[in-house]
Amino acid sequence: MPSRYRNFRCSVPWLILLLEGSFCLLFLVSFYFSSPDVDGCSPCSFYSEFQDVNHMVIFGFGFFLVVLRRCGFSSTGFNFLLIVLGVQCSVLVEDLLIFLRVQRREGALQSVAKAVVSMTAVAISTGAVLGKANPVQLIVMSLVELIIFCASRCINRTLLQVPWWDHLTLMHVHLFGAYFGLAVTSRFPEPPPGLDKNRSTPKSNLFSMLGTVFVWVFWPSFNSILAVLKKEAVLNTYFALAVSAVAAFMLSALTSKDGKFRMTHIHSAVLAGGVTISYTAESIQHPWIAMILGLLGSVITILGSHCLQRCFNPAFKLQDTSGVHFTFGLPAVLGAVAAVVLRVVKEGIDTQWSNLSSLGYLIFVDVGAFCQTISTALVTGLITGLILNTKLLKPVHVSKYFDDQFYWE
After folding, report:
1. Contact predicate 384/141, CB 8 Å
2. Distances (CA, A) of 162 to 168, 188, 370
3. What is the superkingdom listed in this entry's lineage (predicted)?
4. First to last CA, the chain
5. Closest Cα partner for 377 from 188, 157, 144?
6. For position 401, what pLDDT does the model report?
7. Number of other residues whose CB lies within 10 A of the CB of residue 97
8. Which residues, in sequence order, are CB contacts of 279 under 8 Å at separation 6+?
9. Are 50 and 225 in contact (CB under 8 A)?
10. What does the angle CA 161 – CA 384 – CA 130 come to, to the nearest 5 degrees?
11. Which domains are assigned to the chain?
12. Chain centroid, CA 26 distance in Å
């Protein structure tokens, strides 16, 4: 049967070689790693947090995406390839921003950690096009998305004046990744209704749940690695994740027809608390607020999956392979709204509602950053999806969707 499948020997290896050669040359002239660390923490104390995030993105998301019965190799293998390529690209982009004086200088290890966090957007977007995009398309999509995401963060910092110490610009990673991936997948041809390769099996659900557990365990490190108040970020994230996990089991039994737990519900909703609280993890002073956000995140994920799969996706002809919209997109929107509400309440109480002009400016910054991020993700995602489906990038025929045999031996 090998003759039935396209050979990517003339495209993928040479594209990877070209990229790695370019990265090596750019790192040769890069001044970043020759500079001393200027961050406040020692590299040794920071390395354990970096390793947690690294495990979460590579191992956790790699198995999290194993949702299709014939797409396991592509899910884990391509995720790993995109991460290691994208981290190098992201570090170079950060170095360019420092050279242009758009971004301040930080420690080298912080730069790599920030690059790994940025790659979460790519991992989320990959879940939306999983099984439909070939390796060339995935690599091009990843590099384009990273550059646009860094540009979006720069707009938030320079034009909207989001404070340097506020890692809100980087915590838009879930929002950007989800809606960029949805916009890209909307430009791919819709698979035929009779195609049975785009369904899961108990084995694929088990591997996917394994990845979900790893992402759940390491998510407190993800939310706190760039935070100033690390202890508050870790505790609030854990409480939000714990409540969202408990609520996922409760809502799954309540919403299923026979009262049984559904693995798809658990797979997506247990992470909703971590996504929802990403914006406000270090600023929340009372754990019950984090717990309420975790509960609301789980509710919007499970109820959103019902509504979106029955109404939204058929109307817009979207096939969100891994359900990134209700797993990451909707909780990210909820978290952005919660960040604005909590900012209004906190600043209003601190100033006794006397300085409304300053409060209005803070609201403008938060809402503007949110609107700019989601609109940039949607517009550039649509353009990227159109580019990916040109003949130059060898798009896969719909009959070959969701099949490892097209790429793997």
Report:
1. yes
2. 8, 35, 11
3. Eukaryota
4. 11
5. 144
6. 80
7. 17
8. 168, 171, 335, 336, 338, 339
9. yes
10. 110
11. 47-394 (1.10.3430.10)
12. 26
